Amino acid sequence: MELEERVSELERRLEALVGEHADAPRPTGADFWALEGLKEQLAGAGAADGGVLYAGAVRLPTGERYEWQYGALTEQLLDAGGAGEAGGAEEADGQAPAGVGWADAAESFAALGHPLRLRLLREILGGRRTAAELAALDETGTTGQIYHHLRQLTGAGWLHTKGRGRYEVPGARVVPLLVVLTAATT
Fold first, then answer.
1. What backbone torsions phi and psi does residue 162 show, to the nearest 5 degrees?
2. Taking the mean position of all CA atoms in its chain, how far away is CA 23?
């Protein structure tokens, strides 16, 4: 491939990447309202080392709506004895509850570490809730393989069973799941 063709191909790829996110919001000074609010809260709490906050208000393709926020102090997160609970909610005093250690969080992350598990979660969020519905999809493997992955996700708390063979992402895990996916792709 000649240099001109290579440059054209790179330009095409760049346009495709930019085009995918062309309508994504571009931050301006006013767009950092969550960050500014967090900094005010941290200053009021005397948290010199800062903290993190994530939140979301989502409507799934099934029509279900979830609103959720979570905050933790940097000191809590970096303390070897504990990190803010991945699926928890902020306590009434604005502090994250005492949580699990970093090593304990590895199981939760590991459960998300397989492309098929992420696909199963996406399909479940989209309304396919039974193993039979999931098995009917292309390239999801055998029923035994699907159940293996569903058990991994259930064991890590990303799924729970509801009724007879129906799976769902617990409400307190919907926004955190989307936050993790956002963090992994930005």
1. -130, 110
2. 21
Spatial separation of the C-alpha atoms in residues 53 and 19, rounded to whole Å: 29
Which residue is listed with tokens 């993790």? 180
Asked if 115 and 140 count as a contact pair (C-beta separation under 8 A), the reply is no
Q: How far apart are CA 157 and CA 175, in angstroms?
A: 14
1-32 confidence digits (pLDDT tens): 677 777 677 666 656 655 555 566 665 667 78
Q: How far apart are CA 10 and CA 3, in angstroms?
A: 10
- Which residues on adjacent β-strands are paired with residue 83? 100
* Residue 169 contacts residue 177 (beta carbons within 8 Å): yes
What is the reported pTM? 0.72
Pairing of strands 160-161, 65-73: unpaired
